[in-house]
TrEMBL record:
Residue ranges of domain PAC in the record: 44-97
SUPFAM superfamilies xrefs: Homeodomain-like (SSF46689), P-loop containing nucleoside triphosphate hydrolases (SSF52540), PYP-like sensor domain (PAS domain) (SSF55785)
Organism superkingdom: Bacteria
Domain Sigma-54 factor interaction stretches: 121-351
Nucleotide-binding listed as a keyword: yes
PANTHER family: C4-DICARBOXYLATE TRANSPORT TRANSCRIPTIONAL REGULATORY PROTEIN DCTD, TRANSCRIPTIONAL REGULATORY PROTEIN
Residue span, PAS domain: 1-29
GO molecular function, one term: DNA binding
Keywords noted in UniProt: Aromatic hydrocarbons catabolism, ATP-binding, DNA-binding, Nucleotide-binding, Transcription, Transcription regulation
One example of a Gene Ontology biological process annotation: regulation of DNA-templated transcription
Protein name: HTH-type transcriptional regulatory protein TyrR
Amino acid sequence: MLFANSANASLLGVSKAELEGRTTQQLLDEKIFSNSVILEVIRQKKQISKISYNYHTRLTVLATATPIFDDVGNVKYVFNNVRDITALNELQNSLKSKDTIIQQQSRQLESMRIRLGEGTIIANSKAFNEVITLAQRVAAFDGATVLILGESGTGKEIISELIVNNSPRKDWPYLQVNCGAIPENLIESELFGYEKGAFTGADNKGHKGLFEAANGGTVFLDEIGDLPLHMQVKLLRVLQQKKVTRVGGTEPIALDVRVIAATNRNLEQMVREGTFREDLYYRLNVVSIFIPPLRERREDIIPLINHFLMVENQKYHTNKSIYSDTIDAFEGYCWPGNVRELENLLENLVITTPGDIIRRENLPLKLRRPQQVSAEEEEETVSLKSVVERAEYAAIERAIEKYGSIRKAAAALDVNPSTITRKMQLYKDMSSRKQNK
Ligand SMILES: Nc1ncnc2c1ncn2[C@@H]1O[C@H](COP(=O)(O)OP(=O)(O)OP(=O)(O)O)[C@@H](O)[C@H]1O
């Protein structure tokens, strides 16, 4: 950077001195630039314009960089003109103009970002902010067991990390185990360790279990609902006595471990059905944190999209943005896989979309459906006719996605193509009637 004027510096939220004399790569590394049009111009040897969002100043800017060539056609300088288009963007946003390409980043202004180790937690909705506030409060109560509940992919693991990082144990070991992933005959030795010769195949020096290895720190027991009943008894004993005895051992080892457990299963119902011990449930449930599914906190969707777009763009060195008319599809979808599904979809779209703009037609069919079944509707008692219609529509949609055309889908479903067209039209009419209600 040979020269920067003060307007440029203030748009980036730094002083001129922090820019001049630095390379673009240095500025990228220091996160003063979130992406760089300059490097793109050097690579492509032509004028390029790019819209980007600056996290320091919270401004959306349009950068137009022009190459200046030397005598033999190499890029000698790049002239970069940067303009604040935040207001314009907001206007475009509200107009939802069809021909406007926006990244919807202005909405991110409201979102709260919390630094957490390497990652970032996005929390814009009131519901998720309450989760974070509770997690931060609980974190300080060292030793209190926490139970995190929520559907798969809602963020239980990152909330657990947030608790650990805000707790007095943050510099002590933090070990995680997925109780559903360990074969039943190995769970006890994995959790509590074993003495040499405890069983055939055991390491002849013995082995520390997860609890012993995390002594002084925190253990995250993921999928606690999958823990077999006989292990539930043993876990309860360890938690109550604050001591662990290795398999094949006799000497109990004193433990000072905080336990955070998580599950996407309904533990109360499991207690009623006798598949989860009531005493362990109460022991774990000293404080419980419920993370609502994404469909019940839709205000998080756009900030999450922006966040994952930025992450994937950085990861794949791309510069993809989202076309404004796709946003409704993202907001309208019911996200059964929650934030993980959104994250995976964004990664998929960044990889598979040709060109830099992700448009409605690039989205999977399930998002382009005329109307999604909302959580409230799921709970509502709906007529049998509409249940059948939805099931038919879902089957049609899956077949079209799989076979790529109405004709092939019709052959697979053993109906006429005209039946498919008619049923899809019916469904669309039904949805728009509902929307107009
Ligand atoms: N609010 C958020 N901000 C940023 N990333 C998030 C947020 N919530 C979830 N994620 C990301 O979504 C993915 C799923 O989150 P996580 O693993 O914490 O969910 P989980 O509830 O523990 O899932 P499972 O029940 O399947 O174990 C992770 O990659 C995580 O980083």
